[in-house]
Write a structure and sequence with these properties.
192 residues; three-stranded antiparallel beta sheet; 22% helix; globular; six-stranded mixed beta sheet; alpha+beta; tt1808, chain A
């Protein structure tokens, strides 16, 4: 995700029902009833998200889990009064009943966000708390600046955190899936 800022509308909490009435542009997320506008991603952001998505797609081909790339709405509950709708950069769903025509409804198995300077608080705080609250098994935050991945694993309802800068990152939620850090970030060589 790129630039994130709260949209100054009238002071009220919004719901998914409100979200459905808004235009597609600008792209927004809804967290705790507050609107956050999303700027267009940069080429570096798109390359790293695209590379990871391609790796997940190839690995999961023929398996029950399915990866998706942003923009795709993810809401954690069926309720039209829900106050959370996010658009992760990459998301993996292993229960096909959660895949709907309007997006994902239910808790994803893996969520990945690509960090930008303006989204640091949004990804590390707001979204991390939401994902832990709803029980997302695994959450990755990719830093293209540091060429690292912060991996959150849900253990007994709480996230355990590790930053991985070299070697291989092994998924906690997607059995057998791993990524070589240097190879993943090699897609950025010459772009930064």
């Amino acid at each position: 995700m790129q630039s994130v800022q709260s949209r100054p509308k009238e002071q009220k909490e919004y719901t998914y029902a409100d979200y459905l009435t808004w235009p597609d542009e600008p792209r927004v997320e809804l967290i705790d009833g507050v609107i956050y506008e999303l700027a267009a991603p940069t080429p570096v952001h798109q390359r790293i998200a695209g590379r990871l998505y391609a790796k997940l797609d190839a690995f999961l081909d023929g398996k029950p889990c399915v990866p998706f790339m942003s923009p795709i709405d993810v809401r954690f509950t069926e309720s039209k009064r829900a106050k959370d709708v996010v658009q992760p950069d990459v998301v993996v769903i292993c229960d096909h009943k959660k895949i709907r025509s309007g997006g994902i409804v239910g808790v994803p198995d893996l969520i990945v966000e690509v960090l930008s300077p303006s989204s640091t608080f949004h990804d590390f705080e707001r979204k991390r708390h939401k994902y832990q609250q709803y029980g997302v098994k695994e959450y990755w935050i990719i830093s293209t600046t540091n060429r690292s991945i912060v991996q959150y694993k849900l253990v007994d309802g709480e996230y355990e955190c590790e930053e991985i800068k070299q070697g291989q990152i092994e998924s906690f939620a997607i059995e057998g899936f791993g990524v070589d850090i240097a190879e993943l970030f090699s897609v950025l060589d010459g772009l930064e």
